[in-house]
Amino acid sequence: MSSLAVVSPAAVAAATVAQTLAGFVFYGPLFARRWLHAMRKDKNDPKYLTTPPDPRNYTVKMVSSVILDAIKVCFLMPRSCRRPCKR
């Protein structure tokens, strides 16, 4: 059985939540002004506040995060932390 099949779903969920929270903090309170300046956006622009975000972006981000986090957990987690294979 491949090592990806024995990765703990809890570890993948924890990694996905941690990555999402880190992104929120990074693009929110920490570097919001610098990020807006780099993207050439103005916070006072009425178009900036009235354009709602597309929910598909969040869906794609979460699905890709789960896939990438499963791969990261598979390669970074020590073998002793993985669930044993059922044969």
Descriptive account of the structure:
By secondary structure, the chain is mainly alpha-helical. It has one domain (3-77). It has 4 helices and no strands. The chain has helices at 9-30, 32-38, 46-50, 55-76. α1 (9-30) crosses α4 (55-76). It is elongated, with a radius of gyration of 18 Å. 6% of the residues are buried. The model has no long low-confidence stretch (mean pLDDT 77). Pfam families: DUF1761.
Summarize it.
The chain has 87 residues and is mainly alpha-helical.
Kindly list the characteristics that best describe this protein:
87 residues, single chain, mainly alpha, 64% helix, 4 helices
Q: From N to C, what is the helix and strand string? A: HHHH
Going by helix content, strand content and strand pairing, the class is mainly alpha
Largest sheet: none
Compute the number of structural domains.
Answer: 1
